Amino acid sequence: MLGRLILPLLALAAAPALAGELGHEHHAHGAHQHGVAQLEVAVDGPTLTIRLESPLDNLLGFEHAPRTEKQKQAAQGLLAALRRGDGLFTPTATAGCKLNEAKVEAPVLEGRADAGDHADLDADWRYTCAQPARLTGMKVGLFAKYPGLKRLDAAVVSGKGQAAFRLTRKQPFLSW
């Protein structure tokens, strides 16, 4: 629950840091830019909360409601993989973090909206860590699974403060 409160505040608090550190303007909820997604990470005691906001094109190669059988299968596969969370994020092993909950929202893929040409996906994952003091970072496996994703603009808030990162295929690690 606290992660839900922290993440909106994190987005506001991190915007100046992201703009300064990354050298570009950062808009609330991020601008819709193909190849780029936003990642917000909050560490609150034993709870690790992760939020991803991404254009669907980064993850599927299209942003409209699935039209063909192949697109429908790809969309369902994406939603299932994100809800399972397998290999998407690898927190520090010695922290003993386990995925508790995953929520994925992509209304255009679920037949709940016609988002036009620029549909996004929002996903949240919540982990509980047995040894939270040992949680010092995580590897982000999204690049290996989704070749359309080129960059993640990441913001982290933890007991150690706030930090902004630019993750890429060559640099998929967050440390705090």
Which key terms come to mind for this protein?
176 residues; alpha+beta; 4 helices; three-stranded antiparallel sheet
Describe this structure in words.
With 176 residues, the chain is α+β, with helices and mostly antiparallel strands. It has one domain (2-175). The chain is 26% helix and 36% strand. The chain has four helices and nine strands; from the N terminus they run H-E-E-H-H-E-E-E-E-H-E-E-E. The strands form two sheets. A six-stranded mixed beta sheet has the order 4-5-2-1-7-8. The longest helix has 21 residues, at 2-22. The two termini are 22 Å apart. The model is unreliable at 4-29 (pLDDT under 50).
Task: Give me the secondary-structure topology.
Elements lengths: L1 H21 L13 E9 L2 E9 H5 L8 H16 L4 E3 L5 E9 L14 E10 L7 E4 L1 H4 L5 E8 L2 E8 L4 E3 L1
Parallel strand pairs: 1-7
Antiparallel strand pairs: 1-2, 2-5, 3-6, 4-5, 6-9, 7-8
pLDDT < 50 runs, ≥5 residues: 4-29
Q: Number of DSSP strands?
A: 9
Count of alpha/pi helices: 4
- The helical percent reads 25-40%
The string of secondary-structure elements, in order, is HEEHHEEEEHEEE
Main sheet: strand order: 4-5-2-1-7-8
Estimate nothing, just give the exact number of structural domains. Answer: 1
User: How big a fraction of the residues is strand?
Assistant: 35-45%
Quaternary state of this entry equals single chain
Largest sheet: 6 strands, mixed
Shape: globular
Mean pLDDT over all positions: 85
Question: What structural category arises from helix and sheet content?
Answer: alpha+beta
The termini sit apart by: 22 Å
Rg value: 16 Å
